[in-house]
Amino acid sequence: MSKKQKKAIPKPAPTKRQLSKWQRQMKIRRIVIIAAVVFLAGILSWVGYGYYQDYKARAGAWREVVIEVNGVDFTMEYYVKMFDAYTKATGVELELIQNMGDYVADMVAKYIIEAELLRQGANNLSIEVAPEEIDARLRETGWPDNEAYREIVRSALLLEKLEEHFSSGLNATMEQAHVQVMLVESQEVADEAIAKIEVSDNFTALVEEFSCNPAIEGDLGWLPREIMPSTLIADAAFNITPGEISEPIYDETATKNVGYWLIKVTDKHDEEIDALVMLLGSETEAERVKAQLASGGNFSALAMNYSQHESKIKGGELAGLKQGDMGSTAFDQVAFNITPNVVSEPVKDESVQTTGGYWLVKVIERGEHELTPNGREGLVGKHMNDWFGELKENSTIENLLNKEKKAWAVDKVLEGR
User: Which of 389, 387, 398, 388 is nearest to 71 (CA)?
Assistant: First the structure.
């Protein structure tokens, strides 16, 4: 049975008014769509340009040369990688990087420069490190096998080979002197020490009583002239008769672990004091300056002439001092208990350093002698330092890292931690 077809109902034709209305609506829609597309395209273009510019800036920063050593360039990317590896390898704490980033950044830059100079200098001596040697050392340390750590290992191995190179050039024996030394604070103390040594005939037994430089004191053993602690000691060691003690030798550059304060408190308020101070290099000098003050000398003027404390530029004036500010118990015990406007007696302080003192040198023996392990190590170190110093002096080095670039590098390192 065939389906009954629906009868088509003709639709009325649109009037001119309706056609006109539809055309206006279509036109508005097209305008809105086109505007939206243009706007969206503009937004996307702007955002894309921004991302591109940001990427371009970042990529440019990574590729920027920040250090040059004799024509060898090091980019920011290398610097940041080495910053990260070096601080991890040497145990630099994260807190130090966060709080003293600029200092650590300079330390890393110095390392990169010196490592490259070392590589170039070693190459001039035909000293190289094979990749297999680096591989073996990396396995020993457990460090990652990447460019930065490989360079750190290469530098360490080069240093070892350079030490062997300079050590191999030394003779087994050479002219040396067996010496005993001490630094004392003044001529008067030197005379007292010599008198006691002559009675006891035991130089080293009196070191603890008189010496004020623990870094260089007592029996130094056999040493060649080259590595004597100072030229003054060397001149005495190779000129005086063995068994004798030198006359006191003044050394204005020698550092002593002792000083003497003169303190005059000018005002006290609550837990603070205002004071005039000066730090002198010996008790003898302190007594002499105190005598000048007693004779009417001006404290500030004398402080500017004789004091070894940084306050000398202000005539020794220190305002608003609290206990602990000076980092000296000896200073505090006097300064916070003394009667105002009275100059203290000389206050001995072994927590400070002053310069200027007198060397006493005794030669036990002198002559051709086999190099001791310490003597050999000292000579190798000196020869290497001299070699490296000359290498550095004749090199062209550019450190292009400014404060902003170092801060940027520090941020990148911290982001990766």
Answer: 398
Structure tokens at 212: 């004020």
Q: Which amino acid is at 185?
A: E
pLDDT at 81: 97
pLDDT tens track for 243-300: 999 999 999 999 999 999 999 999 999 899 999 999 999 999 999 999 999 999 999 9
Q: Mapping DSSP to helix (H, G, I), strand (E, B) and coil, where does residue 174 land?
A: strand
Q: In angstroms, rounded to a whole number, what is the distance separating the alpha carbons of residues 23 and 168?
A: 100
Q: What is the pLDDT of residues 89-142, one digit of tens each?
A: 999 999 999 999 999 999 999 999 999 999 999 999 999 999 999 999 999 999
3-state secondary structure of 17: helix
H/E run at residue 254: strand 249-256
Please give the Cα distance from 72 to 102 (Å, whole number): 24
Question: Residue ranges of the alpha helices (H) in 64-146?
Answer: 76-89, 94-99, 101-124, 131-141
Per the listing, tokens 């920011």 go with 76
Report the C-alpha gap between 291 and 289 in whole angstroms: 5
CB 415 within 8 A of CB 80: no
Q: Which amino acid is present at 176?
A: Q
Give CA–CA dist 138/161, Å, rounded: 17
Rg of the Cα trace of the chain?
38
Amino acid letter for position 412: K
Amino acid found at 408: W
**What pairs with residue 349 in β-bridges?**
259
57 band by pLDDT with thresholds 50, 70 and 90: low
